[in-house]
């Protein structure tokens, strides 16, 4: 793992332009093995460096439709089906929000498809933390932030106040 692969985490800006975090990343051509491996190496190196469970490409400024969760990189990922009968609240953190946690409601069973590191299209059902992490990272690629997923306006306001306070300490 090379230190020159490490890129700064794109933080959500409470008072500014969040285009890199809030726009949809279009599907890309990942038919080239070398490209898949390069993107994987960058995402994996940065995820480990920042000690995250997952990391989406746009969180480090890359215009790639890919994310890495716990060592696996998912290219052009999609959720095919949500099990709406399996929704629970999960305490989630996000590197782009300084790992501040919030309660997010998500289905804990989903069916997904994506291209894996070997270039194979995979269809599978994910459950529990695997499903939650996949949805969280996919939200990044779809331009949805963690704050967007906090259903309660009061909780969202508290979350953003806490985040703004932490963000302002970085200045």
Give your account of this protein's structure.
There is one protein chain. By secondary structure, the protein is α+β, with helices and mostly antiparallel strands. It has a single domain, classed as Alpha-Beta Complex (Peptide Deformylase), CATH 3.90.45. The protein is 31% helix and 26% strand. The protein contains 4 helices and 7 strands; from the N terminus they run H-H-E-E-E-E-E-E-E-H-H. The chain has helices spanning 19-22, 33-49, 128-141, 153-170; strands at 54-56, 66-69, 72-82, 87-92, 102-107, 109-115, 121-127. The strands form 2 sheets. Strands 1-2-3-6-7 form a 5-stranded antiparallel beta sheet. A hairpin with a 2-residue loop joins strand 2 (66-69) and strand 3. It starts with 18 loop residues before the first helix and ends with a helix. The model has no long low-confidence stretch (mean pLDDT 95).
CATH topology: Peptide Deformylase
The ordered string of helix (H) and strand (E) elements is: HHEEEEEEEHH
Class by SSE composition: alpha+beta
Cα Rg: 16 Å
The helix count comes to 4
What count of domains describes the coordinates?
1
What is the CATH superfamily classification? Answer: Peptide deformylase
Approximately how much helix is present in the residues?
A: 25-40%
The whole-number mean of residue pLDDT values reads 95
Give the uncertain stretches in residue-range form. Answer: none
- Main beta sheet, described? 5 strands, antiparallel
The CATH class is: Alpha Beta
| Assigned CATH architecture | Alpha-Beta Complex
**In percent terms, what proportion of residues is strand?**
25-35%
Distance between the termini: 30 Å
């Amino acid at each position: 793992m090379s230190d020159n692969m490490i890129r700064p985490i794109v933080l959500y800006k409470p008072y500014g332009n969040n285009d890199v975090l809030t726009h949809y990343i279009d599907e890309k051509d990942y038919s080239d093995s070398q490209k898949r491996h390069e993107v994987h190496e960058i995402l994996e190196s940065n995820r480990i460096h920042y000690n995250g469970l997952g990391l989406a490409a746009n969180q480090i400024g890359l215009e790639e439709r890919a994310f890495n969760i716990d060592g696996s990189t998912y290219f052009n990922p999609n959720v095919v089906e949500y099990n709406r009968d399996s929704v629970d609240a999960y305490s989630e953190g996000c590197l782009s929000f300084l790992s501040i946690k919030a309660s997010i409601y998500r289905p804990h069973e989903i069916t997904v498809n994506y291209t894996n590191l070997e270039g194979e299209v995979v269809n599978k059902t994910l459950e529990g933390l695997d499903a939650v992490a996949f949805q969280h990272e996919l939200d990044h690629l779809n331009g949805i932030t963690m704050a967007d997923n906090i259903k309660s306006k009061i909780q969202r306001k508290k979350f953003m106040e806490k985040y703004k306070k932490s963000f302002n300490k970085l200045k």
